[in-house]
Amino acid sequence: MDPSGIFSTSYASDSALVRTRAQWLALALFGAALLLYPWLASPRLVAVANLMLVTSIVVVGLQITTGYAGQINLGQAAFMGVGAYGASVVEVKFGLPFWIAVPAGGVLAALAGWAFGLTAARIKGFYLALTTIAAQFLFVFVVLNLPSSWLGGVNGFSLQPARLGPLVFDTDRALYYLFLFSTAVMVFGAFGILRSRHGRAFVAVRDDDVAAGMMGIDVPGTKARAFVLGAFYAGIGGALWAYQIRFVSVDQFTLFNSIWFIAMMIVGGLGSIVGALIGTVLIRIVQESITTLGPDLIEFIPTLSSDIVFASMNVFLGLVITGFLLLEPKGLMHRWNIFKATYRLWPFPH
Amino acid sequence: MIIEFFNYALNGALLGLLYSLVAMGFVVIYRASKVFNMAVGEMLVVGAFLVWWAVQSRGMHPALGIGVALAISVLIGLAIERLLFRRLIGESVFSMIMVTIGLLILMRGLVLLIWGPQERQFPAIIPLAPLIVGELIVPRSLAAGGIIAVVCAAGLHWFFNRSRAGLAMSAVAEDHQIALAMGISVRRSIAFAWALGGVLSVITSMVYLSGKSLTFLSFEIGFAALPVALLAGLESIGGLLLAGIIVGVVQGLTAAYIDPLIGGNAAAVVPYIFMLVVLIVRPTGMFGWKRIERV
Prior knowledge:
Oligomer: heterodimer
Distance between the termini of chain B: 58 Å
Largest sheet of chain A: 2 strands, antiparallel
Low-confidence stretches of chain B: none
Strand order of the largest sheet of chain A: 1-4
Radius of gyration of chain B: 19 Å
Order of helices and strands of chain B: HHHHEEEHHHHEHHH
Mean pLDDT of chain B: 87
């Protein structure tokens, strides 16, 4: 809902993403803050921000598949892994530069997503959830059992830093700008897709796929597109992740990671791109805090020693998922929207 | 040669029956509450730790210890219904699945916090010496597991398909709203489902872990049993036995004959490929209900 006094007089202004001057100002300030961040924060915090940016691309992809199109995907980490391995192979085996390797990783992941999107055309609900879990197991199996000269097997893959002409992205600060640019492009793309007819088809299929089919929407095609798009985002995220860590192995892309991504989406709110970003940032902050505080926690429960971090991560993740689904199933963005509407309508209740 | 083949097949079949016993945890909860419980493996670990705590750590007599463990796991099941699923009646499939996954992860964290990551020796409730029939060698715990699986399946099949209370619960599995309108208590049905799930998890944990070592990682059998539940169809209890035997024999023979050829661990992934094929070709499994959708 717009503030009072703002009326759209054309289709373009009705579908605009940024609608008021104040919003332009806020966006500009936010952009400037993001650009200045690596010069103000400590190197460790810049590295954390890099992981947040990469993860937010993956979670935005999941938001498209699950939050908008309503197709449950418990294998987002596997698609991310396909992207990471795809980019690494393109880079290491074929010697192509990173600006080809990253989109190639995205496309390979999108192909994998397409295969699972086809199954989504036939089945739904938890049967689909189980299929995507199977994707997770298959991914690990395939990587570990192919000849180790192909995908590195158990040992994983090492990469060279990304290069663009004279630029070498080998510091966290350089990578930060690369990731910030990629995330901005991907997020803008997501907004664009979701306000197009494809985005409206996603929402229609999510709300009721039988009814959507009767309205003339190509339901199997829409479901497949949702998976392809979500997996493409995961693949891009995975490829960038590979350039951040510069080492790829299967245990970075487990079912546990997929569940973290879903938790990020639930916290932010299903069906909201901004929610996906907020959820990612909040959950990552807690993850980092638990990792940092881990050594202090050991003093309280000495029997667990180094497993305390893993144990408390589990407890936290379990509580977040169940707590949010029971108490605030629409996520933080819903709360924020209520607040915004109340603020704009004040002093009237409706 | 041929006797070896039978040996592999028989052991595979018995392992499959163990899977079907684990998978009963999925089906029983689904048949009475329409909740697909992804946390079956974790409930099994909790049940196992309860038995270990009562029998090994507290030194109770096995019969008494098992009784205590059963009582506590029933209470845990009731608490899960009270705290989580009572609020979720009629909610979307996504919420239900994600809550059980959240439960899985929460329980794993709590098991780690309470009992730690160490390996524990699980008491040998079923004697360890293998049964030898002619030239066939069968571990006694698997044989006992097979018998328990058949007995449980027969009892539960009768309960859900013949008894009045069981049929009322089947109505809950079809549709919460309609069941409520028919005067069936959805709450009580879900509470019963989770209590029964708790009992089953203690029984299964004793069959699965008897005399073996127990860690928090034992929950992985829950995922191994998923393909069995899907092949049978989520609503069928009797079908689980057949599905378990099929998956078990296929897995056993793969481990024996195909793994040496490719030098990899194909046996671990064969059930999932099976599961994918079932999901794509016939999502309702062999004996599952067909649902008709209306707008």
